[in-house]
Design a protein that fits this description.
This protein is of the alpha/beta class and 384 residues long. It folds into 2 domains: 6-196, Rossmann fold (3-Layer(aba) Sandwich), CATH 3.40.50; 280-378, 3-Layer(aba) Sandwich (Rossmann fold), CATH 3.40.50. Helices cover 39% and strands 12% of the residues. It is built from 13 helices and 12 strands. It has a 6-stranded parallel sheet, sandwiched between helices. Strands 10-9-11-12 form a 4-stranded parallel sheet, sandwiched between helices. Helix 10 crosses helix 11 (275-293). The chain starts with 5 loop residues before the first strand and ends in a 6-residue tail after the last strand. The model has no long low-confidence stretch (mean pLDDT 93). It binds nicotinamide-adenine-dinucleotide. Residues 9-15, 31-34, 78-81, 93, 96-97, 118-119, 146, 148-150 line the site of nicotinamide-adenine-dinucleotide.
C-alpha cells in the first residue's frame, strides 16, 4: 500500500466511488457532513447501487475535519456544486468545506495538499485559494475535473478520456498527477497541465459540447423519418469518428468558403429548431464584432482575401464580408494575400488597422505590433 494518506470530502455519487477506488491503494479516510451516512458507513450497513463501489476499504468515516486533516497528506474534495434558483453555481458547500479545512489547519502545523474534483466555475480556483490567504504556508490546490457517469463511476475513473490538472504555475503539481498514475488500474494519459481557470472551464466546455452533440443528433432524428433518413446509421457514422476527430478545434476567424456556409444553408432547410441558424448567426456576429472594433474612416489592411490560406478561391470568403462591413463605415480597405499575389506596399505603418485572417504572416504581424498607433486584430490569437 502506498504511504501517502488520502482524505476524501463529500461522499456522494462521485466522492464515495472515489474513496472506494483510492482506498485500494492508499490509506484513506472519508468525510461527510451527513452524520447518518457516516454512521451507516462506519457500521458497514450503507448501500449503494454504484457498481464495484465498496465501502470497507477506508480506515474510517467521519464528520470531523480535524480528524481528516490529521490523517491525510492529500485531501480530495468532492462536495456538490449544484445550480441555485437563479441558474448560477451554488458554492455554499464548497465554501463551508474550505472554511472547515482552514479551521482544521489552524490547529495543526500539518501541511496538506488539496485536489478538487468538484465541478467549478473558472474563477473558483483563485476564490478557494483565498480561504488560506492568511496562512504562512497555504495548502496547494489543484483543480482536477473528472469525466464520469453515474452507474459507471469507478470504471470511468479508471479509464479517463483525459487527465487535466489546473494549478498555480509557480508550484509543481507532480503529486497530483502521481496520485492517479500510481494506481495500476487507472489508465495513464499524458496529462493536460494548465491554470485553475482553464482546468475548470474545460470541464464545463466539454459538457456543453456533449449537450450540443445530443441536440444536434436529436434534431436530425426528429426529422429523420419524414426525410427518409436512417438516424441509426447517421449516429453510427458519428460514433465511428465521422466527424474527423480533432479537426476544426483551432481557435480562429469565422468560417467561409464554398462548402461549409452552403451545406449549413441546406441543413437549415431540413430542420426547423434553429440550431444551424444559430451557428450562422454566431459566425456572422463574430465578423460584426471585428468591424465594430475598427474606427470609421480608418485605413485597413486585411491579411488574407481567399476563404483560407493556401487556396485561390474567394467564394464566400469572410474577408469579403468583412470588407463590406468596413466599407459601410467609410473605411478604406486593402488586401494582402500571397495566394492571389495581392501585395500592396509592404509598409504596415501606412495603415490604421491590420486585421489578420490568414496564418503565415508572422513577420508582418510582429512588425505591425511594434508600430505605434497601429491597431492589430489577429483572429488567430486571443492576445491583445
Ligand atoms: N455525479 C456526477 O455524475 C458527477 C460527474 C462529474 C463531476 N461531478 C461533480 O462532483 C461534485 C459532487 O457531485 P455529486 O453528484 O457526488 O454530489 P452529491 O450531492 O451526490 O454528493 C455531495 C456530498 O457532499 C456532502 N457535503 C456537502 N457539503 C459538505 C461539506 N461542507 N463537507 C463535507 N461534505 C459535504 C453531501 O452531504 C453529499 O454527501 C459536484 O461538483 C459535481 O458537479 C459529479
Amino acid at each position: 500500500m502506498n504511504q501517502t494518506s488520502i482524505g476524501v470530502i463529500g461522499l456522494g455519487r462521485l466522492g464515495l466511488p472515489v474513496a472506494s477506488l483510492l482506498s485500494r491503494y492508499y490509506p484513506t479516510v472519508g468525510l461527510d457532513i451527513d452524520q447518518a451516512k457516516i454512521d451507516s458507513l462506519n457500521k458497514g450497513t450503507f448501500t449503494t447501487s454504484e457498481p464495484n463501489c465498496t465501502t470497507s476499504g477506508a480506515a474510517y468515516y467521519t464528520t470531523d475535519y480535524d480528524s481528516l486533516v490529521s490523517s491525510s497528506d492529500i485531501v480530495v474534495v468532492c462536495v456538490n456544486t449544484p445550480t441555485d434558483a437563479n441558474g448560477n453555481m451554488d458554492s455554499t458547500q464548497l465554501k463551508e468545506c474550505f472554511k472547515s479545512l482552514d479551521k482544521a489547519l489552524a490547529s495543526t502545523s500539518k501541511n496538506i495538499k488539496i485536489l478538487v474534483l468538484s465541478t467549478l466555475m473558472p474563477e473558483h480556483g483563485e476564490w478557494l485559494a483565498s480561504f488560506f490567504s492568511e496562512r504562512k504556508w497555504p495548502p496547494q490546490i489543484v483543480i482536477n475535473p473528472v469525466w464520469i457517469a453515474i452507474g459507471s463511476v469507478i470504471k470511468d475513473l479508471q479509464n479517463p478520456p483525459m487527465q487535466v490538472y489546473g494549478g498555480d504555475s509557480d508550484k509543481p503539481i507532480l503529486w497530483a498527477i502521481k496520485l492517479w498514475a500510481d494506481i495500476p488500474s487507472v489508465e495513464y494519459h499524458t496529462p493536460i497541465i494548465t491554470d485553475t481557470r482553464t482546468a475548470s472551464f474545460l470541464k464545463l466546455a466539454h459538457n456543453a459540447w456533449c449537450t450540443m452533440k445530443m441536440s444536434f443528433i436529436g434534431e436530425l432524428g426528429d426529422k429523420a423519418a419524414q426525410l427518409g433518413i436512417d438516424i441509426n446509421t447517421t449516429s453510427e457514422f458519428f460514433r465511428r469518428g465521422g466527424e474527423r476527430p480533432g479537426a476544426f478545434w483551432q481557435y480562429g476567424p469565422s468560417f467561409g468558403g464554398p462548402c461549409f456556409p452552403r451545406d449549413l444553408d441546406f441543413f437549415n432547410q431540413f430542420t426547423d429548431s434553429g440550431l444551424g441558424r444559430r451557428v450562422q448567426l454566431i459566425n456572422f456576429s463574430r465578423l460584426h464584432n471585428i468591424a465594430a472594433q475598427v474606427k470609421s474612416k480608418n485605413t485597413v489592411l486585411i491579411v488574407g482575401k481567399t476563404y483560407k490560406e493556401g487556396v485561390d478561391i474567394t467564394e464566400s470568403s469572410i474577408s469579403l464580408k468583412l470588407e463590406q462591413l468596413l466599407l459601410k463605415k467609410s473605411c478604406v480597405v486593402d488586401f494582402l494575400d500571397e495566394d492571389l499575389n495581392e501585395l500592396p506596399g509592404s509598409d504596415v505603418s501606412a495603415y490604421d488597422t491590420v486585421i489578420v485572417l490568414h496564418r503565415g504572416y508572422d513577420r508582418l504581424i510582429s512588425e505591425a505590433r511594434e508600430t505605434s498607433n497601429l491597431q492589430v486584430i489577429d483572429l488567430w490569437s486571443t492576445k491583445e
